[in-house]
Structure formats: structure tokens, C-alpha cells
Write a structure and sequence with these properties.
Number of helices: 13
Largest sheet: 2 strands, antiparallel
CATH superfamily of the largest domain: Cytochrome c-like domain
Order of helices and strands: HHHEEHHHHHHEHEHHH
Strand order of the largest sheet: 1-2
Number of strands: 4
Oligomer: single chain
Structural class: mainly alpha
Shape: globular
Strand content: under 5%
Bound molecules: heme C
CATH architecture of the largest domain: Orthogonal Bundle
Helix content: 25-40%
Radius of gyration: 23 Å
Amino acid sequence: MKFGALILLGLVACGKDTGVPPALPPAPTPYELVVPAGFPAPAIPPDNPLTIEGIALGERLFADPILSVDSTIACISCHLPAHAFSDPRSFSQGVGGLTSRNSMPLFNLLWSRSFFWDGRAASLEDQALEPVEMPVEMGEDWDRVVAKLERHPEYPALFTRAFGDVPIDRRLVVRAIAQFERTLISAASKYDRWLAGQAEFTPEEERGFVLFHTEEGDCFHCHVAPLFTDNEFHNNGLDLDPPDEGLAALTGKRLDRGKFKTPTLRNVEYTAPYMHDGRFQTLEEVVVHYDSGFHRTALTDPLLLVRPNLDLTPADKRAIVAFLKTLSEPQFQVP
Ligand code: HEC
Ligand code: HEC
């Protein structure tokens, strides 16, 4: 209501030739980000502060196939809200075929230092530039995207509300999308309520917690709470000879072959299939991998190499899976 009145005033002022300069568009409304208790301070780029209008625009762009060459694929086509913004298929369908890696879940991104499985993008803004022009994903050209948005009946006004009276360009598009992505926060799982003394674990979940956080199961070295990632790159022994170079494609270092960013385990119940190539369908298969299924090669992470096989009992394997499911937040399963 309030904004409507302001916009109307602006229009009236522009319409009359009174010699008064046209009213500037109203400034966007700052968004109050609530940082969950126990989480580190997030890093938001100073040139892209969160605003209500920027976030709303980003959410709309994220779901709009206008960013793709044939208007069939949006970001949301491969990052499905019902799967914590990942894809239940091992590889995602883009305009030019299938991606070569598993889509990644999107939340708690304001605590990530690098993006993609191999960390090749340094910011969310940089990350969002890539899928639009990737032939397999959206196959579009940024200049054409900007032209389509300029011609659109609604987008020009939405960009003005979010960023002021400046021409639409790719930089503003990715800023809006990044703002939206930064508001996707998951910190209200059963585990979080348990930490706060507001929920009880079953004995099995508690056993899983202990296995996870001790040498017995040894997950915590890489999947570090509260984000359940260390934001580092490791080779967790998936292959004798990694077919995907991973981090080595960027660094050229032979020991970086098959290293990938440690994924968060929050909402992992909703993000099957697992690993950079979606090779495991279930969490039970993942636990078997860490128990006795991983390869010991010169590339395997020392944390895994130094220890003997875990030899977890069937009950302990179930306990780890039960604990992992306490990291779910049902909001990230809603279509
Ligand atoms: C065709 C499917 C597809 C489309 C369309 C797509 N993505 Fe992705 N996304 C992926 C895949 C696959 C990866 C992992 C790729 C890799 O690591 O090489 C990924 C990775 C990401 C990441 C990195 C997350 C992290 O934790 O590092 C972000 C952020 C992201 N996508 C956002 C977007 C946005 C924003 C759009 C729209 C502009 C988009 N994606 C469009 C499939 C897709
Ligand atoms: C040496 C570090 C390290 C240790 C220890 C470790 N992980 Fe991982 N984990 C990773 C990395 C790296 C990946 C991604 C590997 C890839 O895709 O190539 C991963 C992937 C996963 C995934 C798949 C998530 C997804 O979204 O695809 C699950 C689930 C998982 N780990 C659970 C565990 C459990 C449970 C333990 C303990 C039994 C554990 N991890 C121990 C580093 C580690």
C-alpha cells in the first residue's frame, strides 16, 4: 500500500511539466538478515547489499526460463525446491543435453568461499554468469538475455525498484539472483533444536551423532558443524583413477585429481543421488563406501588413508543414517 502510493506520487510528479525534476524511484528496502545462533558471520559483498526488492527480483529470475535460449530451462529446472534446490536425477537436463556433474543443493551459500564442485567460481555473482551461457545448460547469450528483459512488460520496473534508474545489464541480473540465494538458510533442523535443548534424539540418533563426531565413524573432520562442510576439497576415494579431474582442472596439480568440494550434509535426506556424479542412490550406500568401500590410492585423502576400515556393525551404519536425517529441515522439501 505504502509503496503503491509513493509510485503514484512519482508518476504524478513526472507527468506535470512544472519544472520540478522527475522524482527518483524510491530506494529499495534493506533486508534484515537473521544469522542463526552459532553460525559464523556471513560475508556479503559490500556492492550488493540484500534488499526486499532485489531478493524478490532474484527469486523471479531464478524461476524464469527467459534466461535460456529456447525459454525451456530455468535455474529452478535443475535446482528443485522440493530437493533442497538440487536435482533428483544424477545428471540434469539442460537445453543442450545432460550436465556432466550432479546438481548441487542451494542453501547456506553465504558461508561458502567458492562455488561448483571444483570451486571454480569465487562468488555467487560470478557463479550465476556461467549457466546462462553454458551450451549444455541454458545455451543463451547474455546480450540477448538483457535485450529480452528490457522488452519485457514487467522486468524494467522491477529492476528500477531493486537497483535504481540504471540500465539492465548482466551484472544486475546476477546480483539479484545472488541476493535471493543468500536468503536460503537452513539452520532449523531437529539437530539444531536438539543443540538448543528443544528436542530429544532417539538412542539411535544419539549413537549416530557420536559415531559421526568421533574416530569411530570419523565424518567430522571434513563435514564440520554447523555447516557440515569445511569448504575444502578432498578426494574421498571414489575411484582408482578419477575420470573427472575435479580441482586439478584448475590447479594443474596431479595430487588434486578427483578432489571435490566437501558438500554440506544438511538436508542430505532430500538431495539424493549422492557425490559429484550422483553415483550413490541412498545414504546407506554412502556409509558402506566410507566403512570399507573406498579406494586407497596416492590420491585418497590422508584422513581416510591413515585409518583402518571402520568395520561398522549394521546397527552403527543405521545409526549414522539416522543422525544424518536429523539434519533435515522440511521447508527444503516443499515444492
Ligand atoms: C542444466 C542444469 C542447471 C541449470 C539450468 C543451472 N544449474 Fe546450477 N548447477 C548445476 C550443476 C550440474 C552444478 C554443479 C556443476 C559443477 O560443479 O561443475 C551446479 C552448481 C550451481 C551452484 C554452486 C553451488 C555450490 O555449493 O557450489 C550454484 C550457486 C548454482 N548452480 C546456481 C544456479 C543458478 C543461479 C542458475 C540459473 C542462472 C543455475 N544454477 C542453473 C546444474 C544447473
Ligand atoms: C576426507 C574428508 C571426508 C570425510 C572424512 C568424510 N567425507 Fe563425506 N564427503 C567428502 C567429500 C569431498 C565429498 C564429495 C566427494 C565427491 O563428490 O567426489 C563427500 C560426500 C559425502 C556425501 C554426499 C553428499 C552429497 O550431497 O552428494 C555424504 C552423504 C557424505 N559425504 C557423508 C559422510 C559420512 C557419513 C562420513 C563419515 C562416515 C563422511 N562423509 C566422511 C569428504 C569427506
